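User: We ran a pulldown and think these components assemble together. Before we commit to crystallization trials, I'd like a predicted model of the whole complex to look at. Sequences follow.
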Amino acid sequence: MRLAPRHAERIDRSRELTFTFDGRPVSAFAGDTFGSALFAAGQRVFSRSFKYHRPRGLVCCSGHCPNCLMTVDGVPNVRVCVEPVRERARVEAQNVRGSLDRDLLAVTDKFGGPFTPVGFYYRTMMRPRRAWPLYERFLRSVAGLGAVDKHAGRRRRYDAENRHVDTLVVGGGRSGVAAAREAQGRGERVALVDEGPEPVEAPGVELVHGRALGIYEGNLVPVDAGSILYRFRAGRVVVAAGALEQPLLFPGNDLVGVMLPGGVRRLVELWSLKPGDRAVVVGADERALAVVESLEAAGTQIVHVVDLRAAQPREIVAKGIGGRVRDVVIDGRTFECDLLVASGARQPAYSPLAQAGARIEYDASRGIFVPAELPEGVEAVGAVTGEVGATAVPAATFNGASGKGKCFACICEDVTDKDVKRAIAEGFDSIELAKRYTTVTMGPCQGKLCHLPSIRLYARETEASEADIGTTTARPPWGPVSLGVLAGRGHEPAKRTSIHHRHKDLGARMMWTGAWRRPHSYGDPEDEARAVHETVGVIDVSTLGKLLVAGPEAAAFLERLYPSRFADLKPGRIRYGVLGTDGGRIMDDGTIARLGDETFYVTTTSTGADSVVEWFEWWNAVWHMDVEVTSVTGALAAVNAAGPRARDLLERLTDLDVSNEALRYLDAREARVAGVPSLVLRIGFVGELGYELHFPSPYGEHVWDAILAAGADLGVRPFGLEPQRVLRLEKMHILVGQDTDSESNALAASMPWTVKFDKDDFVGRWSLERVRDQGFPEQLVGFEMADGIGGAPAEGGQIVVDGRPGGRVTSARWSPELGRVIGMAWVPTDLARDGAELDVKMDGGVEKARVRMRPFYDPDGRRLRS
Amino acid sequence: MRELAFLSLDAPSADALARSPMERRLREAGADFEVRDGWLVAVRVPGEDRHSPAVRDVTHVLSRHDLGTVPGTVPPAAGLAALDVEGAGATTLLRRLTELDLETLPAVGALAHVRVWVLRRGEESYRLIFEQEYGHYLWEVVVDAAEPLGGGPVGTP
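Assistant: Here's a predicted model for the assembly, 1023 residues in total across the polymer chains.
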């Protein structure tokens, strides 16, 4: 039922829309909200309350109160009073067992009262203790509002959008629009945020329909606009959030038909709806009492008006039938009505200001809290500053003598005045503690409708003043916000090498190593490892960190950084180096190739690349040396071709003389490979004759394809990280971070040959000298399990010495080549000798193992040099 | 530092084809390719006429791009990839991916958690330059964000 067309109405009666409510079709006009359309269709009960499941109806029609939360198209907790109608939307009531009109859980209202006071689950449900899981399951099934659709994430997408403006105005009332237009006139970038529901007229100003959630450091203001979160960064934030009508506390103040004046006015003026047939109006200021005009225009009979400024009744009691107002008793006089419009003072909506750092003080003459001392860059205009006109200070409650009926201090969480009194009696006498105990202000309205009334109640009950009670800390968000909005789109950066897609084509199983996606294997790790030992294997090692260190002092720079010696490294030669921290601990490792007198090419581990670059740059800044450090990690792809046929393979791809005499083990040469200028490093991480080819990334697929094509008849096979791990373990080559940790040093890691004490100072020298002089309790060794043991101990597993934990396994694998399980482990130093016996814990039992101090495979490195 | 041939994109022989890290994604989108200056370049993408904002792989022009105008330390061209985002909605698209103030370009900062150099080429026209190893990822992110705005991939005619 609609009223005759009104001049300011927002509905377009020529455009009808239809949606369903609990399966039944409901018609609406364009411009309606789901709430207004349902009201027009005769719906009065919009929700069931949080705890007592009492029927609740529209109160504010502005998206503040919790009374109209419904599930729309699977999204729970939509405030339907402000949600514009959409064609064919599916609207459902929530928090009910049954229907809105017949909710089975309403029994808690009838019988649960004495058993379910605030904090009841800490007390009532304590005994018997072992029954708690049962209670918990029940409580969880009835608690909360709405049900989350666990698959919604796949259907609905949320975005975040960053905006930079000079001035951001929060609130589209008169003052907000004026502030926005003024800033616009100065040529500023301006945006105005308004959460509705009333239309904003601000020609020329960019309007954002959404809710400002808070004001963060640096004037960052997130705005929830439904499926998008705007992150405004503003030079200046102007808060024009207005003021909020405050409910009065009296028995029956939550009955359907008890409304705030603003809600009534919006029903009439925006959607041309008749809020009720017979109304009683109780107001504390001019604005509240002006609702009488709207009601008269709607044809509602005004039964009685109470102006709290003239005199305050002792008692107001709303009585209802079926949860709906039937009559109101005011100081003994009974008024029959179906609508009770009641409000106290208008409280400035200071929360965003308080949360930004404003001080909030109490204005005793008007009984409201007002903001003072705004932080820099934040301004306030209009009603939020306290310009709310003259107003009466309503009594804390209008309970009168009878004390019958529930009187709600908080309709979100169903907290009554008795609950608050009880909390005080139990000793929760500070407002911050009481808030946490009673949960007043912690519901969907976030204190908009309950903060001031509960402070007033507190002041009366503790015989203190509101100024002494003070407000609770204001924190964002200023209202309910969906987690999807906060999460936005999931972005998980992944690095891929330029050969990535070829691995996928070849059926590689990919794995994460740091931020990189790398092939674990191509389906058969054992066979891949065998190819390296018997023919030739290729592995994409583009992820290696790569650095150019160039300049007159390049060699001196590396001498200082590494414990190894580089001054004597000849151009065209390569040396392994372990990079240490200033505490002498192992930080990274890699190869250093001297390309010229003043140019070095340094490789690092894949995951250590970024920190090594920073480390180099930091020391370069400290030492002021004539050196330039350039990271070329991403610029170069790298492929390692290793195996007895690797030379035959390389020969087919380059003009370079690759004979063992011309290109020795640990030689570096620049050459064309498959037509692409490359750096060829002859190294041997996986224990066979091998060449690492480094070349510009865009040629990754070209070179890879050329290698596989040229090596087809040689039996070339790509191999992944898993076979590489086995191969390097056979050579006892460490993996930094796997076999070492932040405490490990090169001496204890059995690599004393990388530390040169007979050279000048280097990073970590002092610490390493201490280690050398004082010794170390543990050493990194290799071990092999006895024959016949096929399973490898867990990495991180225990080494048992004399029945006690004495060390730990860092790597362990079955080696098909050696036909046994091999590994590396930290063991007590006195056991770090070839052949020493160890016990290794596995699968609950203990197995024998033997220490090995030299590589398991080709200990003399003949194959590397062949 | 002396010039190192193995860092250069100019020297390869004629049959060596350079590919952008986004080449595979474009191929999967049905793009037609041509070889230009040694690069495999996507020239047409099905449906590209309807795409605005348009997302274009311009990695192949980077070696001729004046990286001196780009703020901060930029890796060698071989380590970079680039996308142009242009047409109505381009600004909105970038706003959804980066906190950088697009009024004060060029700038370098996080875009979808990755370091990106953002350059302005016109009113609704931007160039994003980034480390090539993130090419595949950023292509997915940018095209995914372009879709609800009516945008998508286009080729270099």
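The CA atoms of residues 47 and 71 of chain B lie 35 Å apart. That may be worth checking against your pulldown data before setting up trials.

User: Thanks, that helps.
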